[in-house]
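Appendix C reproduces, verbatim, an entry submitted by the partner laboratory led by Prof. M.T., so that reviewers can inspect both the input and the predicted structure.
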Amino acid sequence: MLNGKRVAVVLPAYNAQKTLRQTVVEIDRTIVDDILLVDDGSTDETVTEADHLGLLVIRHETNLGYGANQKTCYEAALKRGADIVIMLHPDYQYTPRLLSAMASMIAYGTYDAVMASRILGKSPLKEGMPLYKYVFNRILTLIENLMFGLKLSEYHSGYRGFTRSVLESIPFRFNSDDFVFDNQMIAQILISGFQLAEISCPTRYDPQSSSISFRRSVMYGLGVLRTAMEFRMARWNLYVPSYLNLTIHESLSPSPVPTNVTHMKSH
């Protein structure tokens, strides 16, 4: 716990066997009450390794997508009573040692959500970020800052923290099951009036760190641009997509957890 608030770390995993232990051993257990891994149909021994590490594991029988994985993560964390939920990729690209700092920014009421930025601080190119990803990141971030009216250094980090009230208030279940889920969450947080902050985070890139192909990066970029445009149109009351419609998500009841999910051992 931190400042009397229960802290959960959720790990959306896909073929993370080789990096999972490195990630988990650096998590500060003095403040973290739960570590929950959701395996999205991995073809390696991610689930076995997670079991050896004593994690609470939920398994998707088939690969449902990065967004669908996070939906299960947040639903499970809320059901277990988390007041603060930190989402950390288990590929060891982001250092788990920032967990306490990120949780503190939320636990003491300063912010409602926080993202770890790869752009603040050291140059991500020097740390191994592929050039095309860096260029895409900079272009998309410029456009998003204009559309969202913010000055964030990036919108594409896989290391984020939220209060319980954020996750209970935004209709994240209506988001994409793919990678654009992250950007849709940002749009929901902002349109709901919550306060979002950033913290500098060193990162590492190697063959074991997860990555998406150039083609999927382009598709992701198009989805990001669409999300930014939909946010601006919603602000202008011209068009409000379902995932940004705060008045209907409580009356609709999408399945909170996919039907092809197996709950594994709890330690």
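The radius of gyration is 17 Å. Additional entries are available on request from the coordinating office.
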